[in-house]
Model the fold of this input.
Amino acid sequence: MRMFDKKWRNVMAFALGLPTAIFSISLCLRVAVDSGLLSKRISNVVLVAFLAQCVAVLVLYAVRKKN
Done:
């Protein structure tokens, strides 16, 4: 008996790696803001765009592998 269905393995791997990706992106953006390369507003927009893209990838993959 398998613990997880094979078709959901990629989605679960992506979902489990998501917190690390969020932390690393936000850390890089904070360094860029502190050094004056980006404004705080631009870094917030980039972070929200990254999060939206990650959620979209998860949803699209789930819809494709639903059947």
Notes: The mean pLDDT is 86. Residues 6-64 form one domain. Residues 17 and 24 are 11 Å apart (CA to CA). DSSP finds two helices and no strands in the chain.
